[in-house]
Design a protein that fits this description.
The chain has about 475 residues and is of the alpha/beta class. The protein is built from 18 helices and 18 strands. The chain has two domains: about 130 residues, P-loop containing nucleotide triphosphate hydrolases (Rossmann fold), CATH 3.40.50; about 270 residues, P-loop containing nucleotide triphosphate hydrolases (Rossmann fold, 3-Layer(aba) Sandwich), CATH 3.40.50. Helix 2 packs across helix 3 and helix 13 packs across helix 14. Pfam families: ABC_tran.
Length: about 475
């Protein structure tokens, strides 16, 4: 039984229906409704700290919880071989750790697990043996104790370098100028009614990370920078007068600017206004929010530059290709013909096309929502190098990441969200794995003290299952 990187659930259907989707014929006997509910609750209890109402449509859950439902669908079938193909890429840290504990329990009973991942820490945590594939060929199989990060990276890329940001990359670039101009201001932004308002300033040339447990506000914050506030507060893009006038002419809207010193602040109230004001946004779920699956690579790239490359709604092939060529080279996009479907590319190269689409608009502010999710280490390095280049040119970057190491290696500071509020801001000098994970839980720890990761007790899952079964039988 396999679980894939893409989140494969039926949105309008309930949690229970998704967990049992296609599984009725697996068991030789008919599975009762109460047994289905009990088994679904037991499996989801292993994966999630809080099991959602089984009758809730899956489309109302977070991305991480939707993927947990897909994983639960595989686990209820009690497979002898479980294949997890980048299945953790959509999971938050807590759910991923609970999955690893669930896998360890099943491995102890004789189940075999094939685990595909580009994340070194995951391979180290779960694997007994490691096979490395490159360019469609197996290049090595190692015992886990031999599979050091340096050796795996060398085998995966064919070159010696460190994981994440390289030694000459963004982690070692100069700190941004404290007097650099402010490009984006957030004032009194309230993400949920009961949360504290958020104030924030983004300066030219800096990379600001957004972190926190899944569903605690960081995703809502980056979307507010792009779409405008969901309720109270304001998001203001600061530009010089000439740029603001050009943005208004391009679609920011008359009356959007408010004079501030020698510049103009444009209030962001929609995606259209954000794009016109020089903001670009790369969404988290590229398949659902960024890609046109039935269209070509060229057409997907040109989606953000229709004004420049199109006429009467039609894209000029020559113009789009001329615009695409330098970004293809700059981002090292590996592809066949530009007329090939976008789905012919790997996940990493699809992501590069989405990023290239926005770079073609020459943004001053780039919003990246978990941009390295599900991409290989080579593509990650290309994206890291791009961020370094952009910030040297004065572009400001806000990047939500679910990888702790990315925050430590790439960010100038990290905003940590908890329960819908900005709970901590960690400057580069204070960033460690311990300090960041502790901030997720509203705590502070000394840098040399490990942060314990809670592992779910199998007995609690069994108790939850028994309770669910009793409730279901009582209802019937």
């Amino acid at each position: 039984m396999a679980v894939y990187q893409e989140v494969l659930v039926v949105g309008p259907r309930s949690v229970l229906e998704n967990v049992w989707l296609g599984a009725d014929g697996v068991f030789r006997r008919r599975v009762s409704g109460s047994e289905k509910r009990a088994k679904a609750t037991a499996v989801l209890s292993e994966l999630l700290e809080r099991v959602p109402d089984l009758d809730t449509p899956v489309e109302h859950l977070s991305l991480s919880d939707r993927q947990a439902c897909g994983i639960a669908r595989a686990l209820v079938r009690e497979p002898k071989v479980l294949i997890l193909d980048e299945a953790t890429s959509a999971l938050d840290v807590a759910t991923r750790d609970r999955l690893f504990a669930a896998v360890a329990r099943r491995k102890a009973t004789g189940i075999s697990v094939l685990f595909v991942s580009h994340r070194m820490d995951e391979v180290d945590a779960i694997a007994d043996r490691v096979s490395v594939l490159r360019s469609g060929e197996s290049v090595a199989t190692l015992e886990a104790k031999e599979a050091t990060t340096a050796e795996l990276v060398r085998l995966m890329t064919g070159a010696e370098h460190l994981t994440g940001a390289t030694a000459d990359g963004p982690a070692h670039r100069a700190a941004p100028d404290a007097d650099a101009p402010v490009l984006l201001r957030v004032r009194g932004l309230r993400l949920v009614p009961e949360a504290e308002p958020v104030d924030f300033e983004l300066r030219a040339g800096e990379v600001v990370g957004l972190a926190g447990l899944e569903g605690h506000g960081q995703d809502a914050f980056i979307k507010a920078l792009w779409e405008g506030p969901p309720g109270e507060g304001s998001v203001l893009r600061t530009q010089d007068a000439a740029a603001a006038a050009a943005a208004a002419a391009a679609g920011a809207g008359a009356g959007a600017g408010v004079g501030v010193g020698t510049g103009v602040e444009t209030e962001i109230r929609s995606e259209q206004r954000a794009a016109a004001a020089g903001i670009g946004y790369v969404p988290r779920d590229r398949r659902a929010e960024a890609l046109f699956g039935t269209m070509s690579i060229r057409e997907n790239f040109a989606a953000a530059t229709l004004r420049q490359d199109g006429r009467l709604g039609l894209i000029s092939r020559r113009s789009a290709l001329a615009r695409f060529a330098p970004y293809r080279a700059r981002l090292k996009i590996r592809m066949g013909r530009e007329s090939d479907p976008i789905t012919s590319l790997s996940g990493g190269n699809q992501q590069k096309v989405v990023i290239a689409r926005w770079l073609a608009r020459d943004p001053r502010v780039l919003l990246l929502n978990d941009p390295t999710r599900g991409v290989d280490i080579g593509a990650k390095r290309d994206i890291y190098a791009l961020l370094d280049d952009l910030t040297r040119r004065g572009v400001a970057v806000v990047m939500l990441s679910t990888e702790v190491d990315e925050h430590i290696e790439l960010m100038d500071r990290v905003l940590v969200f908890r329960e819908g509020s900005l709970s901590a801001t960690l400057p580069r000098a204070e960033l460690t794995r311990q300090s960041l994970v502790a901030a997720f839980f509203g705590r502070t720890v000394a840098a040399d003290k490990p942060v314990p990761v809670p592992v779910p007790d199998p007995a609690s899952a069994a108790a939850a299952a028994a309770s669910a079964a009793a409730s279901a039988d009582g209802a019937s």
